[in-house]
Amino acid sequence: MRDPTSFLRQEYDDLVRQELDWRLRVLGGPSTTWCIVDGKRVLMFCSNNYLGLSNHPKLKEAAIRAVETHGAGSGSVRPIAGNMDLHTELERRLAKFKGAEASLVYQTGFAANAGLIPQLVGKGDLIVSDELNHGSIIDGVRLSQAERKVYKHADPEDLGRVLDESEKASPAFRRILVITDGVFSMDGDIAPLDKVAAIGAEHGAMVYVDDAHGEGVLGDGGRGIVSHFKLPREKVQVEMGTFSKAFGVVGGHVSGSRDLVNFAYNKSRTWLLSGSHPPAVVAACLAAIDVLEDEPEHVRRLWENTRYFKKAMRDLGFDIGKSETPITPVMVGDSGKAKRLSSRLFEIGVFALPIVYPMVAQGKARIRTIMNAALTREDLDFAIGAFEKAGKELEILPAERVA
Ligand SMILES: *Cc1c(COP(=O)(O)O)cnc(C)c1O
Questions:
Q1: pLDDT tens-digit map of 301-320
Q2: Rounded mean pLDDT, 102-112
Q3: CATH of domain 57-294
Q4: Given the DSSP bridges, would you call strands 354-355 and 350-351 parallel, antiparallel or unpaired?
């Protein structure tokens, strides 16, 4: 008899042969600037913990306190018996932080996209999506019965073209959803949300932004991309985000009108059918909002560090792409070379992962660095020195540079 599970091993072996498998690294302790990865002390240069909040004393204290007052788990899904005062307080505080009428917290950002998108649009509707949108948007789109079209990356003109063409459809589309990442995580560029929103409005479309990498980074006090472009709230009807990146914890969220939130929690299957966050998670997220409001220096330092690092890397002669954010890709081109650069950096003491095909186009391999507010000048100089040394060894930089 043939083993019905033999494909598991075969497909895994194929991935290993193509070097497309994930080899998991182990953090032995908290995600801090200097941390232990696979037993070695290295400088963290690729976490999404932009502001260092995941190990901030206020978040840790809040989590510990919540375990004492509310226990380890919530006991249920939120629509039945798992909706604690902490959950509703977090939504109230988040809405206030975002300047929105209401917010809804999901278990993860992935669950927010996968749960909400297929409810906003269905049969007879249209989704228009940026070609480089995040995988969780793509999966949300796949779960919808709506027709889907893609526009060229961050290209409002092409979005206009797609929407103009769609007006000719017969019968006319019932609803249209335009959806984009706020900050694109592979290149660190910012979506032209002002133009996207204006074109969407011209065509009577809803506009949905996934601000996972913009929150805690862009806008007034880290309020995100809508604040960055100073857009009136009603221009972007759905602002989605996550507590798992700059906020330093875990959890997805959606902000907008009260109507949106009432609709979203009554309809999203990922929200209705999955247990709610444990009290410690919710309390830590609440503390993260407190820190963002009370300690503006973290966002300021993140940008100071970003500018310092980008300038030094450019001065050394590295190609750092078109990033406008604390995500700085160090372009290498060849996948094998990007992997060797990452390994060499790790030996020297800098942890930054290579991003290779199929995550990015062939020939566009890179090391993706993510800046952290808690890095000191000394740390940054150490990292820049490591890139210079490894870059010369691998001939990504000229071996000898004339000053
Ligand atoms: C990380 C990320 C998500 C997923 O968020 P989680 O809360 O970690 O599930 C969604 N969209 C984008 C653009 C992301 O970068």
A1: 999 999 999 999 999 999 99
A2: 98
A3: 3.40.640.10
A4: unpaired
pLDDT given at position 400: 62
Tokens for 103, please give them.
Answer: 């917010």
Please tell me the distance between residue 401's alpha carbon and the centre of ligand 1 in angstroms: 40
- Its CATH class, for the domain covering 6-55+296-401, is alpha beta
Q: Give the number of other Cβ atoms within 10 Å of residue 109's Cβ.
A: 25
Q: Answer yes or no: is the C-beta of 134 below 6 A from any ligand 1 atom.
A: yes
- Residue 135 corresponds to which amino acid? G
The three-class DSSP label of residue 102 is strand
Residue 133 near ligand 1, beta carbon < 6 Å: no
Q: Whose CA is nearest to atom 15 of ligand 1?
A: 212
Q: Is the CB of 110 under 6 A from ligand 1?
A: yes
- Is 109 near ligand 1, meaning CB less than 6 Å away? yes
Chain mean position to CA 72? 27
Q: What is the pLDDT of residue 401?
A: 52
Q: Tell me the pLDDT tens digit for each residue of 69-100.
A: 999 999 999 999 999 999 999 999 999 999 99
Beta bridge partners of 47: none
pTM above 0.85, yes or no: yes
Distance 287 CA to ligand 1 centre (A): 20
Catalytic residue positions, numbered: 185, 213, 245
**Distance (Å, rounded) from C-alpha 383 to C-alpha 372?**
12
Q: What is the mean pLDDT of residues 29-38?
A: 97
* Domain spans in the chain, listed from the N-terminal domain onward: 6-55+296-401, 57-294
